[in-house]
Amino acid sequence: MESIHESKNKFYIGVNEDEPIGLLNYHIEKDNLVIEHVYVTKALRGQELGVKLVERAVTYARENKLKIISNCSYADKVLTENNVYQDVL
Q1: From its phi and psi, is residue 48 left (phi > 0), alpha (psi between -120 and 50) or beta?
Q2: Fewer beta carbons within 10 angstroms: which end of the chain, N or C?
Q3: What is the pLDDT of residues 7-43, one digit of tens each?
């Protein structure tokens, strides 16, 4: 499993942020981390990389006492289908 890196307003998987194999874009709005988009390259879909990116966003939100708002249908599904994320919603 590749490690998740952090850059300005994004978490990504890959050698560099310009060519990620997985990406979660977000922005901070007041006390909220707003997930804009989660992307995983087609060849690697189905390997839970998107879930790992959402989990990294949850960790960041918890560490910084933020709530999560998702504008991404994939992230919204991951967050709402698992009760362990309720504290950040």
Answers
A1: left
A2: N
A3: 999 999 998 899 999 999 999 999 999 999 999 999 9
Do residues 66 and 87 lie in contact, with contact meaning Cβ atoms separated by under 8 Å?
Answer: no
DSSP class of residue 15 equals: S
Cα separation, 48 vs 66, whole angstroms: 24
Pair 21, 55: CB distance under 8 Å: no
Contact by Cβ (8 Å): 76, 40: no
Residues 6 or more apart in contact with residue 46 via CB below 8 angstroms: none
Tell me phi and psi for residue 33, to 5 degrees. Answer: -95, 115
